[in-house]
Amino acid sequence: MKKIFLLGNPNVGKSVVFSRLTGVRVIASNYPGTTIEVDKGYLKVATDQFEVVDLPGTYSLEPTSKAEEVAVRLLKENSKEDITVINIVDATNLERNLYLTLQLIEEGYSVIVCLNMCDDTKHRGINIDVDKLEKLLTVPVISTCAVTGVGIKFLIQRLKEAKLNARKELSHQQRWQEIGEIVESVQQLTHRHHNLREILEDASIRPFTGMLISVLVIFTSFKVVRFIGEWLITNICDPFFLNYYQPVLEKLSLSLGREGFWHHLLIGDLINGGIDFKQSLGVLTTAPYIEFAMVLPYIVSFYFILSILEDVGFIPRLAMLLDNLLHRLGLHGFAIIPVLLGFGCNVPGILSTRILESKRERFIASTLISIGIPCVPLQAMIFGILGKISGFYVAGVYLVLFSIWLVLGSILNRTLKGYSPEFLVEIPPYRLPPLSVLFHKLFFRIKAFIFEAAPVVLLGVLLVNLFLTFGLFNLITNIFSPIVKGLFGLPKEAVVALAIGFFRKEVAVGLLMPLGLNVKQLFIASVLLAVSFPCIATFVVLLRELGLRGVIKATAIMAATAIIVGTILNFGIRY
Amino acid sequence: MKEDQKGVVCEVSAGSSLKNRLLSMGIYPGREITKLSHFALRGPVAIRVGRSVLAIGHGMAGKITLEVV
């Protein structure tokens, strides 16, 4: 089968073009490095079937990060006859983009240039003579706007016009010179006054105004996430569970005879003679309630806000502001992207550490994410439990986690060998994402959560119930109770919860609820759940990204941190 | 170099991988760039190259010698 490779600089819209060509939805954002893995899809033109490959962005054919390496290696693995390269070019930034284009043509690939973001050029006073560009480059050039779909049809129609090229190889200097000449002759700029967008773009990369804007944006985001989450819970989820679902379950409970093995498994324990979604712990009661009434609302609100921030182009600016701080932890500003994604779920967070260049950075970032970044499910549960008592405690948990970040990061930075490279990243312009794009992305992420997380939670609660029925937990409870009881001041049943945290964090907090812990114990347990081992899905990714030795090292750090922090919190703080 | 000042790159005194990386992003001797801002305490520097804005770490920025225009 013939292959089509989508290649281009970071953040030019390759993933959007990919979705348009194949109908396969992939995550696209407004920052360089969204695509870290290779996505594949299929496109049928007349009778020909093509395999379309979406590659991570690269500035040149000489890779500088792990993600770029993947792109270049895959390209070079195939013989030039078998592939057509769609080189996606950001029309608002022709000059820099053409460097890769020329390199591709010189190497002799069949290239077709997709001049993307053509809608944006008009606002910015840029006019590009496409026909002339086509003549100068000697390859087909099609202007498109992938977000709205304009031009994609032509792109497909003209695919077959791409032919193997032969062009003499230029030195870097000559290449830039030639690009200068091309740009000079095809691009016309009209001078315009600064508009509000440009003023904001400028303000957000200056230290003082940038800090102000960031604090404002983050504070607002946090408030909005909480507001939407709470609203969904009190107005949609809780009413549904209490008014419609509970009566059904009560009937089921009656017909099961209100006790016995199956009742225990499906409904769980009756609290004060009825079903309590938070405490019954049955496969049909607590499991769906945790997933759909406590966690899902926050998944929706968190990813809604994160998607907006991503698409607008705010995150790279935040990266610049935080560069200084993160440097002290052996990372650089760009590490904020894995961290933010990690707040949603640690798995994509750790995967996206691939945008960092060195192995050392990736180790520090992955370890810090799995220790100090609570995922949405865990945060939602912490809000649900501690937030009910006082927002002060929730803030306390974040404060403790942040301190761990700083201390652990500095220690890792001083003790690990090697050095961390410096920050070098392109700051994209602000863009207003079309709502349809935003909602598609949100829908995509929510779907992934429902299909990946919900079954694991059901299974988790099922296993816990089986284990409890047959007393299988007694052994581990007894082994670990000296640590949990003696050092952390928690009842020994909490061992079960902490162990189940390995499965899924929200189930673990669910198990804490019926234990009747006091505030101090809840606080310590919440922090420990965040700090101790991440869930199994995260472990699998860690293993893949860091290798066995890396994981063992990271795990040792996690265990040590959990024990130290738990002990300090238990003995060091008066409540 | 002050904010909003323009300069022409004279030399990039770095290893070949960094040199290549900067080159592929459009920073090479003879190129005109504009400094937009810098952050205190050895923080990053924002520059404009052509139509793109780049953020560069302090140490890296120090390796780029400019002639102010």
Number of strands of chain A: 9
Number of strands of chain B: 5
Structural class of chain B: alpha+beta
- Taken from the alpha-carbon principal axes, the silhouette of chain B is globular
Using the 3D structure, state the CATH architecture of chain B.
Roll
Regarding CATH, which class of chain B?
Mainly Beta
Q: Quick one: biggest sheet of chain A?
A: 6 strands, mixed
User: In order across it, which strands form the biggest sheet of chain B?
Assistant: 4-3-2-1-5
Report helical residue fraction of chain A. Answer: 55-70%
Please give the alpha-carbon distance between the first and last residues of chain B. Answer: 10 Å
Task: Tell me the number of helical segments of chain B per DSSP (H or I, 4 or more residues long).
Answer: 2
Into which percentage range does the β-strand content of chain B fall? 35-45%
Order of helices and strands of chain B: EHEEEHE
Q: What structural class should be given to the helix and strand makeup of chain A?
A: alpha/beta
Number of helices of chain A: 23
- Global geometry of chain A: elongated
Order of adjacent strands in the largest pleated sheet of chain A: 2-3-1-4-5-7
What's the number of domains of chain B?
A: 1
Termini Cα gap of chain A: 67 Å
Average of pLDDT of chain B? 84
Task: Compute the CA-based radius of gyration of chain B.
Answer: 11 Å
